[in-house]
Amino acid sequence: MRLLTGWRAALRIARRDALRSKGRSALVVAMIALPVLGVTAIDVTYRSTTPTKAEQLTSEMGAADAVFSPSNIGPAPVEQMPDAMNWAPVEESPAVPYADSPVPADVPGAIPKGSRYVTEQSVPATVTTRHGIAPTEIVELRTSDPVVRGKIDLVEGAYPDGKGEAVATTAFLKSTGLGIGSRTTLRGPEQTYTITGSVELPADLAKQALYADPGTVIAPWEAAARRDKEVTPPQSGDVDWLVRGPAGVGITWSDVLAANKKGVLVLSRQVVLDPPPDSEIPRAAHAGQSFEPQELKISAALVTVIAMAVLEIVLLAGPAFAVGARRSRRQLGLVGTCGGDRSHIRAVVLAGGAVLGAVGAVTGVAAGVGLTAAFRPLIEDWASQRFGHLEIRPWELLAIAAIGLVTGVLAALAPAIVAGRQSVLESLTGRRGTRRSSRVLPMVGCVALVGGVAVAVFGGTTDTTALVAAGSVVAELGLLACIPVVVGFLGRLGTRLPLAPRMALRDAARNRGRTAPAVAAVMAAVAGTMAVATYTTSVSAEHDYDYVPVLTPGTVALVTSGPSDADPLAPARAAVERTLAVTGERGDFGRVWAGSDCSVYFEKENDCGTLELIKPKGEGHDCPLQGAGAKKLAESLSADAHKKLMSSPACTDEYVSVTAHDTGESKIVVGDATVLTSYVKLDDPAAAEALEAGMPVLLNSAYAKDGEVTLKAVRTYSEQDKENRKAHPGKAEVTTDRLKAYVAPGRYAATPGIRMILPQKAADRLGLHTKSYGTFYSVTRPPTDAETQSLWSTFAQSGDRVYLQAESGNNGREDVVLLFLALFAGIVTLGAAAITTGLAKADAEADLTTLSAVGAPPRLRRALSGFQCVVVALTGVVLGTLAGAVPAVALRLIDLRKAMEAMRDQPMDSAYTPIVLPWDTIGLLVVVVPVLAGLLAAALAGSRLALTRRAG
């Protein structure tokens, strides 16, 4: 009882002290509540955006009990797992291949009696829009049926009611500029539909599609194709049956097995949620597999976030408790004079942590849930899916609140120990005494820093993630232990600086107990951000390197759909030049081939003959990563050396197999100097003069020997090409010519789609066929949806015989992630620096009063506050950048090890795993954030002081 009585009194004193110092108390509560708020919001968002198995099934089948689908092997029996993802024929034989069967399975006959169902079938189509035309997907599904609720939901308007009506997804309406009441026409059969409403798929908000009732799209389209041979019939997919089973029964496992015997696959809600034992699953017995539903597990990332939040609370709230204990030292001294011992003094300070920690934890949890609910629409749009429901798990939130409470007490632990060590005389007189800094702690910190880095690097080289995480934590803790020494060293740097920055540096060094935790708080926030940012930037650089572009940057290509379709190019070029942001640089190119004139499409392979560049043999021509010895060479190469070798002309053409704008295997186009400037970006008068003189320009120097290229033509003549067939009877003709060529520098070997530019004069001299095939344009930006739809409309007027190619690039979301990380770290850095500045002002009020008394100008207070903030922010950011590099580098070493193993099996695979620092993020944190923090601190600091009499 005595212990409880003592703590009850301590809690009462702490509560009254918190109410008496409302400003400092609010500061501590905010520092505890902010990380708790963040973790709470992450927990609720994670749980709400991660669908349960039942919610996932609803997104696939709506309110139905099951989805029945035909297998691609016809009515042959199949075996499936309960989730219908893994299936196989009962007997694998040539009679039961894995190919599409001409005889479909009888799905309606496999549906249990007493069930009702709706059908779903999709078809790719092209429809008119506000801007022109656009390809999309039309789905025949009775969206008004209650069975599809949860799979598709009506957002606005009404469901379609029969022929001539459809609903569209919100994303489709936004992209096409249409709205409710708009009319769109299905090109081909020219069927027009009125959009009666907008719908959304809760599991895929970005889906663009039209939905119409069954029988209103595909059947009329097929009838139009039978009447008019110029109408292309629809390429509709398989039909799915959304089945509602007999009332109170549903679709059982026995129903699934019965449907499997007829070649029908079934995804049953009841079976997935309550799967049968493996002994009753034939597929499990034959395949030696077990069906185990996947349970959601707390990820390591979530644990890391919670751990970082605990560290943030301790480091940010610790200085506030230290200053609070220091300002309450007279009250704590009175406790000692009344018979209280050191344990009672420590209990009072710890009780303050408990009181404020509890308030902060409750406030943070409540605010986190409230803000998540308030910003739910924005989160759903960002995730492109609706919450199944706002999932709040009380035990998890209680654990988060408990963490906030415990860390609040931990933050007050060090100040409580310091307060308990003070004598009653020191507490009553206000003298702090002189204390030496610990020399052991920095030494331990240096050892921990070096050891942690070694452990993390070792974990990276041995592919042990646990060692990487442990080593990174130990290294960061070691750097934390070294911060007091770093802060002390800062005081020696200001000997030649002006008064305000010199005072700020010396004040930071003299009050290390206040400055070091704040610097550590900034460092911890920046370290986590820099670790993720460095890793993300490095992975993004790797993806950029591995990405194979379709076109050169800043270009688009207007291409015909076949070598005989050159007529529509003129109006199409005018449309492109009128619609897109072209720069005026244009390069017309043609296709070249041997053999028949290819004036019609032929069914036989190689009717147009073949044309190829012969690659010489020997060093500089053969890629060392192919053939004998390639594996041994790959094992001996570093990632950078492997990258350099793959980028060489000898290997890049073997590694990059993509052929842009259908230039064929030869990658030879017919063109002039305009192709060089508009597409290749080769600005060399010598190359232009070579083309003008009839000499080809070779972009890949590995195909040249002594300045010449070897061109092999195999001329075949189709039976349908009567004229050429009479002139060239018998076997195919093979000719090989050596041509003098201008050889471009090695960096142009990777030009997408083009290996050599052949002038028209050379093609005529060699007797090759050529035809105008397309045009390259330089553009200032990629085409928008509206511009693309407008061009498609123009192209359609020419019979869809031309199309536009645009380079979309490697569209990752790394830049957005880095932006959010930088903003997060910037906010925490500003907050920690502002806290430290406020605490410094409260702690150094007597010093500022003395400065004012001896005649210091009023602006000195503002300048001193600003520089104090800059010192904390800048020091923490620099140390955090160093600390964050450790886990990022270690994780990249794991990626490098995996890439090297893959390269040994496939020598041409990329082993390029760079470590790239996010300089934009570093610049924002190192320069912008400290300067902004200093300016805000200077602006918010008062310039006048009320002079008070100092005691002692």
UniProtKB/TrEMBL annotation:
It is a multi-pass membrane protein. It is found in: Cell membrane. Coiled coil: none annotated. Pfam families: FtsX. The chain crosses the membrane at residues 300-324, 345-375, 395-419, 440-460, 466-494, 515-535, 816-835, 869-894, 922-947. Residues 305-423 form the ABC3 transporter permease C-terminal domain. Keywords: Cell membrane, Membrane, Transmembrane, Transmembrane helix. InterPro entries: ABC3_permease_C (IPR003838), Membrane_comp_ABC_pdt (IPR038766). This is ABC transporter permease. It comes from Streptomyces halstedii.
